[in-house]
Amino acid sequence: MKLPIYSLRTGILSHLIFLIVSAMLLINVIMVKFAERDLIRARISSGRLLIRALEQNLGQLINHKKTELAKIRLDPLIRGGITGLLTEGDFAGATIVDRKGNLFFTEGTLAEAGDHYTSITRDAMETGIGTVNFSGSTWGVIWLGQEEVRISEPLLFQGRTIGGVTLSASLAPVYQTVRKSEKVILLYIILDTIILALVGIYLLSRIVVKPIHNILNMAEGYQEGELLPLADETSRNEIAKLSRSLSNMLKRLDENKRELKDHISSLEKANKELQQAQNEIIRSEKLASVGRLAAGIAHEIGNPIGIILGYFDLIRSGEISDKEKEDFLDRIESEITRINRIIGQLLDFSRPSGGTQEETRVHDMIQTTVDMLKPQPTVEGVRIELALEASSDTIFADPDQLQQVFLNILMNAADALSEKEPSEKDDSEKILTIRSQNTDGSIELRFTDNGPGIPEEELTHILDPFYTTKDPGDGTGLGLSVSYRIIEGLGGTISAESAVGKGTTITLNLPLYGKEERE
User: Fold this and answer.
1) Of the segments 112-121, 263-272, 504-513, which one has the largest average pLDDT value?
2) How much is the pTM?
3) CATH class of 8-194
4) Torsion angle of alpha carbons 58, 64, 66, 67, nearest 10°?
5) How many CB atoms are located within 10 Å of the residue 502 CB?
6) How far is it, in rounded angstroms, from Cα 24 to Cα 26?
7) How many angstroms from the chain centroid is the CA of residue 409?
8) What digits encode the pLDDT tens for the residues 420-447?
9) Of the candidates 42, 160, 47, the residue with the CA atom closest to the CA atom of residue 98
10) Residue 208 CB burial class (10 angstroms; 0-12, 13-18, ≥19)
11) What single-letter DSSP state applies at residue 132?
12) Phi, psi (deg, nearest 5) at residue 75
């Protein structure tokens, strides 16, 4: 039977052996104490029997001699008889006094102790009450015990007191007897421990360890989608219930995992569709902006085309000098270059976005957007002031989407300024200010106009889709909503502040990229 150090079987076996040994030793201690007590009581009983024998012998001797014990001479025969009784009873000493308290006989350890035990014997005779005393200490069986027992009683014969006696006996033979038995008991404890441990580990392995290993193997070896082993339906103990509960739990987990995969699949599909719809909204808003730009550009390029046609008519007439002809051609080239630049900006903005984020210079993108917007009739009479004070302006973004955000904000500001009423006051000038500054690893952009402003009740809705304050047909209501989604995707924020009659400020906060972010 393989027993790994940290296995459940090893743990149960070690605890089982510990409990068995502890129980056996506790029982052994109790048995030893009871055995000591019983043997000491037996020793005291034998001492009292010896005293009864002395009473009979001395009493018959008094009757035979027709005298008192004090008048009987202690000859060697009497001494030898008393000594023989002490030896047979395994007593170490004795002290006997007569009716008058005089010492009649003393021998052994009590003789060595002197008058002390004579006085104790005299007290027992006079009071008529026997006593048992212990003295000294010696190593017992498990711990220290009493070394000696002394029994003091009056000597009575035919109802009268004839003297007193004190017997002394060593308890060492008692302890030695118990110690001999203790060796046999310890041997039985070891054998019982081995037998009970083997039987216990067999039963526990069958009832506890093996079912737990089966549960563990079932849990560790479970593979998604495989058939689970059937739990024991006949057993009704806790481990069988645990096995059935685990089996049911794994089944539920398998079902939940399949449901979760279905949910994830549907969420991925919905997210893909949502992303596609969002891209379409951005694209549609971009096309709407292109349409507005194209209308403005069509008006803008009409004048240079008229100038070009006029110069061509003068050249065809042939009535100009070569120097004038060369001057006209240079002017025609300048106007064509101007038209080409305007159309190129529109084409660059209208092309489909690659959707790829890259390092983008915010200041350059703002300047490009302002240049593209200047030909528009809506910005006619609007003074655009650039205060690009940020020392770091590189972010990680899609340039086309970032330009769309700037264009939406600038065109909204231009539309608001176009609604400003003419006034003779100093603030009648239409001003659009673009400021930038660095704040805690980011760049903050503030687009401020001095237009009519937005009422407070409408300001909280300007980022909502399809919400617009313009007349029907003048806007989609998606410009700032699309801008909000783009800025949020870049990890930035967009907010608005406005006061009626004082203007509006749109604030963008975008995280910097690369080394500039760490500076």
Assistant:
1) 504-513
2) 0.43
3) alpha beta
4) -30
5) 13
6) 5
7) 49
8) 666 545 556 888 899 999 988 899 999 9
9) 160
10) middle
11) E
12) -85, 170
Bridge partners (DSSP) of residue 497 are 505
Look at 55-59, 118-122, 134-138, 457-461 and tell me which has the smallest mean pLDDT.
Answer: 457-461
**CA dihedral sign of residues 306, 311, 315, 318:** positive
| Token pair belonging to 300 | 């803008």
DSSP string, 349-361: HHSPP----EEEE
**382-388 and 430-438 beta bridge pairing:** parallel
Q: CA separation (Å) from 380 to 235, 374, 418, 424, 434?
A: 91, 8, 9, 19, 17
Residues 405, 407, 410, 412, CA torsion sign: negative
Q: Residues 68-80: what's their mean pLDDT?
A: 74
Distance of CA 231 to CAs 228, 240, 245, 256, Å?
9, 7, 9, 21
Band (510; pLDDT cuts 50, 70, 90): very high
- Which 3 state secondary structure label does DSSP give 397? strand
Secondary structure letter of residue 420 according to DSSP: P
Which DSSP state fits 418?
Answer: H
pLDDT tens digits along 194-227 = 888 788 777 777 777 777 777 777 666 666 555 5
Query: Where in the chain are the domains?
Result: 8-194, 356-519
Q: What is the pLDDT of residues 379-435, one digit of tens each?
A: 778 888 899 988 888 999 888 888 878 888 888 888 888 776 665 455 568 888 999
Amino acid of residue 493: T
Contact 212, 8 (CB under 8 A): yes
Query: At CA 206, angle to CA 203 and CA 210, rounded to 5?
Result: 140
* CA-wise closest residue to 439 among 487, 384, 386, 493: 493
Measured between alpha carbons, how far is 497 from 505 in angstroms, rounded to an integer? 5
Mean per-residue pLDDT, 67-96: 80
Backbone angles phi, psi at 440, to 5 degrees: 50, 60
Nearest to 408 by CA among 495, 507, 478: 478
**Chain centroid to CA 276:** 41
The architecture (CATH level 2) of 356-519 comes to 2-Layer Sandwich (3.30)
